[in-house]
Amino acid sequence: MRHAVLAALCLAATAFLSACQPSADAASKRALASIDEVDQANLSNIMLTMGDPAEAVAFFSKASAEKPEDLGLKRNLAKSLIRAGKPAEAARILQTITATPDATSEDRVDLADALIRTNDWTAAKAELDRVPPTYETYDRYRLEAMVADSRKDWKKADSFYEIASGLTTKPAGVLNNWGYSKLTRQDYAGAERLFTEALTFDSGLFTAKNNLILARGAQRKYDLPVITMTQTERAELLYTLALTAIKRGDVTVGKGLLQDAIETHPQYFEAAERSLQALQG
């Protein structure tokens, strides 16, 4: 009798395990699929931010070809093409995305960005005009400002630059662009103020430093401002200031600044030496 009961229990246990096995397999497959999705997302992020641009283009081209219906892969391919310096190709990809019902306002802004990089300002404006006014992002207003600049609509440009600078915690780049816009309008004092403000957010932004010197030189301010700079940067800024002075007809001042640049530079400053010799010759 005892043997019969044990046999029955064993059969029941075997049947129970057999019944559970398919469920366990399904759970394992779901878990593995979830891990694979996370791994793919991590790999995509790495390729987009830290990977070699050409490798990223190859990676997302292959992935997008395998899953042509996946708009996320197309978006990543477009971003990779921008990083690789191929905005025209990125624009073509983004145009296929914006033609779908699932296109977003962000897709149109990205397309406008790519079109600006190809110097197609008219098409870029058309895309931005299709973005609803309720979509308010830093990138949208940064591009709106650039388009307004290209059309010399200074009032709109100033308004958009101001909005964009308030929508990011890192406004140095857009403040520098705004300052350059003021520089082209010959509003040198306004440009100087904006370049100085940009450097309060990013003291290492050399473009803003150089632009600041141009704005000051245009006002015949031939001394370097109190900003953070390396010895090499100081020499290069003195060189920029010297050339600005010479272009404004202040040749004697320019010669002195060139000499200062040569003496300041920690290495041989060939460009400054050539400029000084040309003036002396």
Would you identify the CATH architecture of the largest domain?
Alpha Horseshoe
Task: Report the CATH superfamily of the largest domain.
Answer: Tetratricopeptide repeat domain
Total beta-strand segments: 0
Mean pLDDT: 87
Strand fraction:
under 5%
The helix count comes to 14
The helix content is over 70%
What does the overall shape look like? Answer: elongated
In the predicted model, the low-confidence regions spanning at least 5 consecutive residues are 1-20, 31-38
Q: Structural class given helices, strands, pairing? A: mainly alpha
CATH topology description of the largest domain: Serine Threonine Protein Phosphatase 5, Tetratricopeptide repeat
Rg, Cα atoms, Å? 30 Å
Task: Tell me about the largest β-sheet.
Answer: none
- Domain module tally: 3
InterPro entries: TPR-like_helical_dom_sf
Protein name: Flp pilus assembly protein TadD, contains TPR repeats
Signal peptide: 1-26
Pfam family, one: TPR_19
Question: What's the helix and strand layout?
Answer:
Layout lengths: L1 H48 L3 H14 L4 H13 L3 H12 L6 H13 L3 H9 L8 H13 L3 H12 L6 H13 L3 H14 L4 H13 L12 H17 L3 H14 L5 H11 L1
Protein name: Flp pilus assembly protein TadD, contains TPR repeats
Keywords: Signal
Pfam families: TPR_19
Please characterize this protein's 3D structure.
With 281 residues, this protein is mainly alpha-helical. It is built from 14 helices and no strands. The longest helix has 48 residues, at 2-49. This is Flp pilus assembly protein TadD, contains TPR repeats. Pfam families: TPR_19. Residues 1-26 form the signal peptide. It comes from Paragemmobacter aquarius.
